[in-house]
């Protein structure tokens, strides 16, 4: 009897995980088509949008912010968190570690006054790559705004810890912008999501 129950539980976990990964792949493919339509800002700017994204939701948010603010964009890559089973497993395992292998790790921020930094929320905390980025860079006299896309919720203590890290790197943490898209099986439409980005920036 125990073996049967264990088998049912294992099968349920496998089915749910497979569904999550398939939904993430679908989101990424859908978002990539929209992402490709965003023009690159070639003009000068004192605003930079830095972001890490797995399935493209945060990337869309970042590019919309950059478009509205006429900002430059910097994407953070972290190969161990790519879409797929291993990437998902690593994301869950590392969600609270705040340490990651990223590229680029360090850049010259001297020409920017305001820096938006964004990521998805994993286990109620901003994803590790942006913690690593802040830890590795000099934010002296920079105004920093954290932005996140998420499925359900975050814990304020992690936002406060992130703000503290920014301060330790001599930056001025201004505020936290976030958008809850909803659970994977039912999420806010992309058009509404982008409208919400604009609304959040106006507040």
TrEMBL record:
This is Flavodoxin-like domain-containing protein. It comes from Leptospira ilyithenensis. PANTHER family: EXPORTED PROTEIN-RELATED, FLAVODOXIN-LIKE DOMAIN-CONTAINING PROTEIN. It comes from the Bacteria. GO terms for molecular function: FMN binding. PROSITE patterns: FLAVODOXIN_LIKE. InterPro entries: Flavodoxin/NO_synth (IPR008254), Flavoprotein-like_sf (IPR029039). Residues 47-203 form the Flavodoxin-like domain. Transmembrane segments: none annotated. It holds the Pfam family Flavodoxin_4.
């Amino acid at each position: 009897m125990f073996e049967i129950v264990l088998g049912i539980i294992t099968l349920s976990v496998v089915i749910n995980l497979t569904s999550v990964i398939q939904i993430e792949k679908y989101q990424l493919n859908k978002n990539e088509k929209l992402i490709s339509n965003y023009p690159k800002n070639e003009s000068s700017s004192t605003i930079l949008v830095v972001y890490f994204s797995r399935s493209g939701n945060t990337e869309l948010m970042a590019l919309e912010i950059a478009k509205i603010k006429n900002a430059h964009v910097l994407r953070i890559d972290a190969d161990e968190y790519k879409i797929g089973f291993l990437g998902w497993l690593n994301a869950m395992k590392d969600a609270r570690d705040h340490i990651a292998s990223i590229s680029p790790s360090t850049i010259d921020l001297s020409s920017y006054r305001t820096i938006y930094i964004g990521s998805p929320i994993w286990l109620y905390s901003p994803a590790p790559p942006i913690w690593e980025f802040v830890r590795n860079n000099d934010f002296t006299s920079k105004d920093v705004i954290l932005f996140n896309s998420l499925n359900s919720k975050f814990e304020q203590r992690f936002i406060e810890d992130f703000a503290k890290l920014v301060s330790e790197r001599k930056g001025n943490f201004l505020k936290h912008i976030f958008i809850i898209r909803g659970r994977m099986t039912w999420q806010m439409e992309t058009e509404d999501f982008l409208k919400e980005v604009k609304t959040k920036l106006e507040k």
